[in-house]
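Incident review: delayed structure delivery

Summary: a single-chain prediction request sat in the queue longer than the usual turnaround. Root cause was a stuck worker, restarted by the on-call engineer. No data loss occurred. The affected request and its eventual output are reproduced below so the record is complete for anyone auditing the incident later.

Affected input:
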Amino acid sequence: MPEALEFEQPLLELEARIAELQAQDDPAQREEIAKLEERLQRLRQKTFASLTAWQTTQMARHQRRPHTRDFYRLLLEDFIELHGDRLYGDDPAIVGGLARFDGHGIVVIGHQKGRETREKIARNFGMPHPEGYRKALRLMQLAEKFGKPVISFIDTPGAYPGVGAEERGQAEAIARNLREMAALRIPVVAVVTGEGGSGGALAISIANRVLMLEHAVYSVISPEGCAAILWGDAAKASEAAEIMKITARDLFRLGVIDAIVSEPPGGAHRDWEGAAANLRAVLTEHLRELRTKSPETLVTERYDKFRRIGAFEEESLPR
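Output delivered after worker restart:
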């Protein structure tokens, strides 16, 4: 795995040693292999139970982490992609359409980063333009029209900040999505699978349930951007990541998300099928519960959920 992260190296060295002994097919080595496998399991549990926020950010950005289209393939049936916002064009950074999940019709939307260089450029590295968010809104309104739940998959560094995007109303497109999603009369579930960056993530995550994969991150700005603003030095990103509280554990404790989806040992990039199976179980549970609620209850609970986030104090002004 050439994309292995620095803190994964001791694990990879043990795995390589075990594979080397297994390849020898020597019965005399079985006891040694068993000891090494037990040691590997202990080291893996210790390593991933104590990741720093910056290490978690690296996991969320891992080149081999499953992307939205990978989850579509592993989780959905009969996926039909729909294109365009009916205003300007089609944005490949947002992929969505009709599908079946757990035997029920749904609408799915999500960011798509791309994996190889050519695809990354074509998908704009998962940073949508305004037409991407307008396409997402069109699909959500289609879901509401036919009474289908929406599942959104969040994995973006943020909305594209280029001149063309601003000229075509990037801020307005995001703001409109926030307003319209708040009033959707259907179940909406958002899943942060990798990076959940700024308004680019929030624009498709005003949901009844917000879930996060164990090693995903969700924040108002990237750690590098935060460090550049606070200290004028993006190299302090690891320090910024710690104080920003961007990991799933921190956000669950703060009430920003509703559930953490566990990842297979070593992370989702080591076992796509295992990650998808864990996500399927959690999605099924939440969708089953949400389907029993009335449209009015869904809207009210979604509103109340986001109003509860954060803490503030009220002070009366001096007379």
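Verification: The domain at 57-307 is CATH 3.90.226.10 (2-enoyl-CoA Hydratase; Chain A, domain 1).
Action items: add queue-age alerting; document worker restart procedure.
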